[in-house]
């Protein structure tokens, strides 16, 4: 059932990074109960395709009603973790802030997911992934020389700098609570996580081996042997032949007499040579040529691609009729698994609340404090 079997999580429903973090906790084996608004939240499609909500049940509670807030408090009394993604102060105004919850359950790990963090001049300001990346410096890194910063969808901020840092914090706090008997607040801010992700490059910047100018460095398309190239059919391949032995294999398989890669003044010419070479064949032909080699060349595939390696590992799966990524990482003794499909808000209100020991469900439903979809 996963390494977190037995861990109970209450999720106060939000958008983006907090749900993704709770999705991961559920796939790791935790029993996550999602508390939705009666009308649900905004999503990019119908609820059954909102994949970040997969793996857990949904109970709909109207937290504007004291009876609904009381239900959450009773859930908190049994939980190991609570996760919320509100703006700072909202949970406190609901009577569900850290002090309220720790008074009920001192062992509770209270996970908070925001863009700007719980304090600081921008704490109450609105923002999105792109804004947090911009302020952290991460967005400045991405793009070609003499061009504007490029937007990496919302993968780098929301999910890498946000969700994953929240999950790490929750797991660390759970581990510490086992020793101390005390919970604590995990303040996961996307701006902090995004800045933290740049650690290696900050060291390189201090050492003088990285420049602030985009597209002029080893790993940002400045080097022609670490870039993407168009193929004869208008598709692309990614080339990452950094080490000399890998670069030698690349040049050998391309059959080129290439300029000296160790002389940056020849990089523009080398880029032209490589670009011209890759335009001679289709992506599929290059994929076949480089298959299994150490030249570090890979086809740039669309979402949910069917490369044989991905198929062999089951990286993407069809679950309840929807193509999606399988849980990661993998465990040899307590494997993760896909469980429930995304729930409609309030789909499991009666069932889930009963399983968590809430007994006055009929009254809650009659008053509108709870809604069964």
UniProtKB/TrEMBL annotation:
SUPFAM superfamilies registered for this protein in UniProt: CoA-transferase family III (CaiB/BaiF)
Region (Disordered): 324-347
Bias (Basic and acidic residues) ranges: 330-347
InterPro entries: CoA-transferase_III, CoA-Trfase_fam_III, CoA-Trfase_III_dom3_sf, CoA-Trfase_III_dom_1_sf
Name this polypeptide is given: Alpha-methylacyl-CoA racemase
Pfam families referenced in this protein's UniProt entry, alphabetically: CoA_transf_3
Organism: Kribbella pratensis
